[in-house]
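Hey, can you fold this one?
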Amino acid sequence: MKNIILGLNAIGFNTSASLIIDNKIICAAEEERFSREKRTRKFPVKSIDFCLNKAKLKIEDLSAIAISWNPAINLEKFNLHMSQNLNYFPSMLHSTLNYIIKDLKPINNEYFLQKLIIDDKKQLDIYYVNHHLSHASNYFFSPFSNASILTLDGFGENECMSFYSGKFNKIKKILSQNFPHSLGSFYSTFTEFCGFKPQSEEWKLMGASSYGQKSHYYKLIRDLVSINKENGFNLNLKYFNHYMFHRPHYYNDFLIDYLKIQPNANGENLKERYFNIAFAAQRVFEEIYYHLINNLYKKNKSENLVLSGGCALNCLANGKILAKSKFKNIFIPPVPDDSGAGLGAAYYVSNKILNSNKKHFITHNYFGPSFDNKQISNKLKKFSINFTSHKNILDLAVQSILNGKIIGWFQGSLEFGDRALGNRSILADPRDPNMKDKINKKIKFREKFRPFAPAILEDKVSDFFEVNENSPFMEKALKIKANKRKLIPSVTHVDGTGRLQTVSHKINKKFYDLINKFYKKTSIPILLNTSFNIQGEPIVCSVEDAIKNFYLSGLDELYLGDFLIKK
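Sure. Predicted structure:
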């Protein structure tokens, strides 16, 4: 019998659903892609429907459901108010458990199991897996048979950092650190201080950091952290509000007085002082990050490192790990944040509980909805949109890019995760020095300091980058060779880095062939790649989403399957 597991991130930001069968990912998607509400907290109803329909399954066909949060941990303190006032009868599910758990110690410290009996015949098990254990279980779809695992985020239940050891289909916790001494919350505090939205726009702080320089803010911010030589770190909580959930901001008046500068009210108009604060926050983040990575290596001397949790989205820090540690190989999944935690929970149940032993490591993130040419043409006809059909769509797209056009590229299955990797992308010529500003201003409607990614043929990385590392999920920013930066100015950040995506012919033939055709005409094996969306919206999912974004932005052309739309 097959193990069929539905994994859910059903709490917090980026709710999602994913489906695995015998350790192989079948489909996965974030709820925001369907609801069009960016970073939604809504229960992933539409994502679940997509997964079940894609696999032609019903709920009763599932072996188990895995959820990436264990609410039993949050019941460790008896809540009399919540457990006495039963004005809503299903509150019994909380109150009964709360009364019982307070007298039951210890309980299972990895997951909480709920059993549902369906028609007296079928039993459906729902596993609520510890949040950081769910993140750590991304190890199970890594290419490694053994690894050291580091998870870092804002917090999950009561943890915000953990070390694990992975061997074959087992993982074991080495140590963990509890909230509020959180690296994710530290970074979110300065994200908000610089005028951006915490737990949402941390990548803006990362982009802005490269425009700053070392100043007195570095020492001030570094002094807010004490690093424990053998283990983790501590924040000076006097200057932080992130653990005071009733307070309006992550920062407080003490931090304002300490830095002697008011928080920035508008992230679009950063002045030098805020760029320097961003620089300092990124530098201190990296120091803590590498300290933890090196301590993990001392405690579990595998050459392989798996990183997960929201902090693993910091591609600027990720690009320096091999140089800053003794690890030889790194795996960072395309969904290290909470949107992928449900997938990790599903893999935990599959491997640790149901004892699946088949190894299927992830090679791409194209697990969302797809639309064939017939479906696309029917939609275009429905909306009376003028379009043309072409067998040589790649040649047309390359010629448009060579002519300075900015194109929408809608092909194959939607990506799972924050990075668009060539199926729901905006593409342009990386050689145009004005292209970054054009896209930021006309299409993305975002801050001018935000960089774009170089999507490069995987066998040409060493020609353009100082180190030859694979980065299939756009998870690392690496230094571009000094003599190549002028050739690709629109994808070279101010610090000389590029958040590269290495493109494989085997994984995404159509996107590879598109870049390769551009390469043959220009000797540049790179296209500018950014996600197909405008600021404030999720990446486009459907044909309708693509059409809407096309007509509401400054895109010149839209390629949907084998069809072309022009304005």
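The domain at 4-72+107-133+348-353 is CATH 3.30.420.40 (Nucleotidyltransferase; domain 5). Let me know if you want another pass with a different chain boundary.
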